[in-house]
Structure prediction request, 352 residues.
Amino acid sequence: MREYSLAAIPGDGIGPEVIAAGLQVLAASAAVDGGFRLAVERFDWNSENFLKRGHYIPEGGLERLRSFDAIFFGAVGSLEVADHVSLWGLRLPIAQGFDQYANVRPARLLPGIKSPLANGADIDWVIIRENSEGEYAGHGGRAHRGLPIEVGTETAVFTRAGVQRIHRFAFELARKRPRRQLTLVTKSNAQRFGMVMWDEIFFEVARDYPDVRTDRELVDAVTTRMVLKPKSLDVVVATNLHADILSDLAAALSGSLGIGATANLNPERQFPSMFEPIHGSAFDITGKGIANPIATFWTASMMLEHLGEAAAARRLMQAIEATTAAGVHTPDLGGNATTRDVTDAVCGALRS
Ligand code: NAI
Ligand code: MG
Prediction:
């Protein structure tokens, strides 16, 4: 029996609700497959405990996490803690500390779900987000606080090594998809240093992938293309900030933020990778039992794939699609199903 160790970090808000549902679906996947099992350990690193303990990740916490095969993450963010404190206290130290530089964000209109777009069925994208540097490198500062001369800087950091490896990752992924098309997204007209370097390195790397069709688009223009000509895009590679924004748009265009899944990968597997829904704590629906768990199930499928359980990953994705097709939809999708209803339906589809 193959065994994988999984660190579950439910976090805040609806995080615990969707992670509980996700663990249930993963257990059902393993039971149906019969060839592997998951040893799950839960970590209570969240904002409530931060307020009590003064930290999200305890001393030695990252080293403990490091021994796991994968990390299954809910969300972090609370009304009681400033968002930049919670994000930099929990999620970013893991993603950056484990060099999870490739953030993969698929978007596709699942059967039975309505897109706000008339041509939503044409959405079949993977957005690759650079996840280790760029605008979220944490470089900047503030001086003269509160004075009229106060200054705040936020410096984006782009390195040749960082840009090269994300482009290479994107080309490798694009090469495996039927359309083999990769769109480079930057803002190299207005930002003439780091962004121009991004463009240059992209076309250098492209020489190694003559079988992948490439094009380029400015980030503002690509939003219009996502809405008006969804079929013209396949794989998109963009910076940390740009892809963060584009992937929320992609999730909304494919039905809801509650669908969008993501994998934070350390492709070299020197560290565990982290799998999470792209949404946050969703304060407005926390505790109501109506959070859409599909994003979490989708990322669970990506995790199974990453662990080497491709058949189980495929089976889970099929069970998700059977459930959406059958109209078992939470309120964000216009239905009245609960998190539990969707979870039971996916587990049922897995077993049938
Ligand atoms: P959000 O994703 O929490 O919510 C935005 C809207 O989408 C809300 O109306 C919410 O109800 C809805 N929504 C999100 N997920 C849903 C789901 N699974 N099912 C149904 N509806 C869903 O984003 P917001 O409001 O900007 O942030 C709330 C908190 O979450 C903040 O503290 C923020 O910093 C944090 N956050 C954390 C993230 C993470 O841990 N990776 C990512 C995004 C936000
Ligand atoms: Mg985001």
Q: What stands out?
A: Residues 244, 248, 278 surround magnesium ion (ligand 2) (CB under 6 Å). The CA atoms of residues 67 and 272 lie 8 Å apart. The domain at 115-140+149-254 is CATH 3.40.718.10 (Isopropylmalate Dehydrogenase).
